[in-house]
Amino acid sequence: MSEPGHIELERAVDSIWAGRRHREDYGDLDSLVESIARDGLLQPITITPDGMLICGARRLAAIRRLGWKTVNVWVRSGISTTLGQLLAEQDDNLLHKPLTRTEEATLYAELKALMVEDATGRQEASRFTSKQENPRSHGGATVAPPSAGGIGKTREQAALMVTGRNAYTSLERINELQHLAADLAQPDDVKRRAREELDRIDAGGSITGAQHRIRAAQALAELDALAGDPGQPAGIRNTAAAGAARLRELEDTARPADLERLAVLAVERAKSATKKRPAQLASARLRAVEEQPREFLPVRSFVYLWDELSTWTDRYDPETIGPALSVEQWVMFENAVTATVAFLDTARTARNVRREPA
User: Fold this and answer.
1) Three-state DSSP class for 46?
2) 13, 36, 143, 313: which sits with the fewest CB atoms below 10 Å from its CB?
């Protein structure tokens, strides 16, 4: 569905006004002035019905320098009241209540969409421009076809206008959480957690931490779905259930980045578990004469595992762990270390052999 808007021919330049959110330092306008004088205004500026500037501050400054009295504009209705108030501010004193981070992100998404529309959606203007019209005449406008790219610049400009900072990465991350919270296709738990993370951000919480936690929550939802799917083999269901249980144990203690890595690894493990059904496994055991080849996880899974384990010795106190483990837990730990050392020796040998010149 297209956004509400229309081309208005011969709008009086003096009737167009801009709030303080539009930058006042336009940089070097000489080349833009020359381009407009030579070719006309290729992309109309965007305004609200009452003449408030939305997009095109540099173009407006250029045509004013040229002394144009009228100009073709794209009149855009339907913007939110809050965004309209933000763009209409004339000084800092008019903003009585600071915006929350999520409110900033909502306005950023709306303004970014308007700026993309301004940059790429102006073909309709060509219907109102006569081929005989002199593009250099005051108010004459032609419309260039949509240009590819430029989204990075659009995000930067939208972020600066809303927050005064080039903070679009954080705003994009908040937008991702907002989309998840409103997406009916998402599991209820993911939507709930997304809403909780948004509340946490407004309370001063880390946006990066929220991103890690919501991705872990998405992985946990995927594990729950695998564990509860009767169409999956028992090996996948059991591995997924074990992974989900382990993640829930660590949710309140693990660092967000670690939790996300563990969640991704748990999903990989579950999906790579045996895909044979119990009846097939029993039949295979009866027919087996020799040991079946082992199914190894991919290298990427190994990298995920050791990325998570690379600093594990810094996070635990050996003088606390030693006496705290039960006999069975200690034996399991020693066996794991012994097997790890043996694996290291074999892997090092294979690595050195590959490096030897032929």
Assistant:
1) strand
2) 313
CATH class of 1-80+88-95: alpha beta
| Residues β-bridged to residue 5 | 76
Q: Does 236 have pLDDT greater than 60?
A: yes
Residue 52: strand pairing partners: 17
- What pLDDT sits at residue 294? 63
At position 223, the amino acid (one-letter code) is: L
Estimate the share of the chain in helix, then strand, then coil, as percent rounded to the nearest 5: 60, 5, 30
* Distance separating alpha carbons of residues 23 and 20, to the nearest angstrom: 7
Q: Are 111 and 83 in contact, with CB atoms under 8 Å apart?
A: yes
Per-domain boundaries in the chain: 1-80+88-95, 97-125+153-205, 207-291, 302-353
- pTM (predicted TM-score): 0.57
Residue 254, both tokens: 């693990």
Is pLDDT of 186 > 90? yes
Bridge partners for 46 per DSSP: 55, 74
